[in-house]
Amino acid sequence: MEDAGPIGVFDSGYGGLTILSEFKTVLPEYDYLYLGDNARAPYGNRSYDVVYDFTLEAVNFLKNKGCRLVIVACNTSSAKALRTIQQQDLIEMDSDFRVLGVIRPTTETLGELSNTKHVGILGTEGTVNSNSYGLELNKFSPNLFVTQQACPMWVPLIESNKHLSESGKAIIKEDFFELLSKDPSIDTVLLACTHYPIIASYLQELANKKVRIISQGPIVAKKLKDYLQRHELMDKTLSRNGKCVFLTTENPEVFNQSAENFMSMKVNSIQIKL
């Protein structure tokens, strides 16, 4: 068996850092290699073929850096590219290499969190148009009523740090209440984009106590812990030094400044090319 390596975490931008932050809380002993394709972000409105190509490039890059397990911490990539990578590309790779996403672990849990069995999904255009959440939720919770709302401006607002401006809040508020207006019985709203936890407190403020806002990070981190406990051979391939390395296709100084808003810690990234 090859030397142990870090857990790879990939996102098109900064949102995956909210997932990584939860990984570090739940599984602090492991090493992590984060890759943000910030130079080509956002992925939300790109075609299936382009998202697949970009995601596969990132997965191969992390594999070549010694990762035996890669988490695609991007809902758009998980929706548009993950299944093809798992079903086609992994066959040609090492048998002990795995790529996991964020949609399945979330949908396994979401149905348990709603009392009315009416849930809302807020995501990028790519995620919503793929209907990946609708399809997966139908498998695990077929009695669930699912309503979705695309929020194309949210990622650009968050990444440019304009989500707290009055104009930014107005856009967020309009999209959020448009979702709720589609189904007044919604009592649980999933933030189906890893950027959105940054505005979770504002959304909860808008929702008051009538609607529960759910971020993916804690769910995905718990599911990863369960996965590693059930897959001992995979677990043994992962290094444990509590280290975290950040890679970006963007200017490192720009990445570091924005990443610190997501991680609440000092970040020193390295620029790479895919």
List keywords for this structure.
alpha/beta, single chain, 274 residues, 2 domains, six-stranded parallel sheet, globular, Rossmann fold, four-stranded parallel sheet, 13 helices
How many strand segments?
10
The arrangement of helices and strands along the chain is EHEHEHHEHEHHEHHEHEHHEHE
Structural class designation: alpha/beta
Oligomer: single chain
Provide the gyration radius in Å.
18 Å
Assess the beta-strand content as a share of residues: 15-25%
Terminal Cα span: 27 Å
Main sheet characteristics: 6 strands, parallel
**Strand line-up in the sheet with most strands:** 4-3-1-2-9-10
Q: Judging by the overall fold, what is the CATH architecture of the largest domain?
A: 3-Layer(aba) Sandwich
| Number of structurally distinct domains | 2
Amount of helix? 40-55%
CATH top level class name of the largest domain = Alpha Beta
CATH topology tier name of the largest domain: Rossmann fold
What is the overall silhouette?
A: globular
- Unreliable stretches covering 5 or more consecutive residues: none
Average pLDDT metric: 95
Total number of helices: 13
Describe the protein.
Strands 4-3-1-2-9-10 form a six-stranded parallel β-sheet, with helices on both faces. The relative contact order is 0.19. Helix 10 links the parallel strand 7 and strand 8. The model has no long low-confidence stretch (mean pLDDT 95). With 274 residues, it is of the alpha/beta class. 46% of the residues lie in helices and 16% in strands. The protein folds into two domains: 149 residues, 3-Layer(aba) Sandwich (Rossmann fold); 112 residues, Rossmann fold (3-Layer(aba) Sandwich), CATH 3.40.50.
